[in-house]
Design a protein that fits this description.
Layout lengths: L1 E7 L6 H10 L8 H4 L4 E8 L5 H12 L5 E11 L4 E7 L3 H13 L18 E7 L4 H10 L4 E5 L1 E7 L3 E7 L4
GO molecular function: ligase activity
Keywords: Ligase
Pfam family, one: 2_5_RNA_ligase2
Length: 178
């Protein structure tokens, strides 16, 4: 089992991302994001348990969001992580608050304990839209990503620590309104 520390959109604005999930599922081997039973989110770190205890991870997250209010992120582009399977994700237009939280978490817990993709210098702020793009739908998925031509804004309002799979919220805190 692994641990992740995240901020999630636990409000109606999340429906913008969830609608994209429903479109992206057409390119997937099997539905990935709705199957998680978890709202749109940004992950700052993933740790193998028991290497990092959930109390340590949660304390790092609480320190990282201390003084942070709920924040809006605008998305204007869909991008992808190459590989098999291809992963589609929404790119944040601005990531100042995301970078600040990630930096704080990385300063609190030695990044050597973190999954390599979430370490400083490797981490890319992203809101995942589809994890299991079928190889035979790869070109269609990339064309879909390139054709995205609108803007949407999502309010991220909850910090949490989860265990997975399956996703189980261990601790959460609603961020104050700004």
């Amino acid at each position: 089992m692994a641990l992740a520390i995240n901020v999630r959109a636990d409000n109606n604005s999340a429906s913008e991302i969830e609608r994209l999930w429903d479109q992206v599922v057409a390119f997937e081997v099997e539905p990935s994001m709705r199957a998680l039973g978890y709202r749109p989110h940004f992950t700052f770190a993933i740790y193998d348990s028991p290497a990092i205890d959930e109390k340590i991870a949660w304390a790092a997250m609480l320190a990282a969001v201390a003084g942070e209010a709920q924040f809006r992120i605008e998305f204007k582009r869909i991008r992808w992580f190459a590989g098999s399977p291809l992963v589609l994700w929404a790119e944040p237009s601005s990531n100042e608050v995301l970078t600040r939280i990630h930096s704080s978490v990385s300063a609190a817990i030695d990044p050597a304990h973190c999954h390599p993709h979430y370490r400083p210098g490797a981490w890319t702020p992203h809101c995942t839209l589809g994890l299991r793009i079928a190889d035979e739908r790869r070109d269609d998925a990339i064309a879909f990503a390139r054709s995205f031509d609108r803007s949407m804004e999502v309010l991220f309002d909850v910090a949490d620590c989860v265990a997975f799979p399956p996703v189980q919220v261990i601790a959460e805190q609603r961020l104050p309104r700004s």
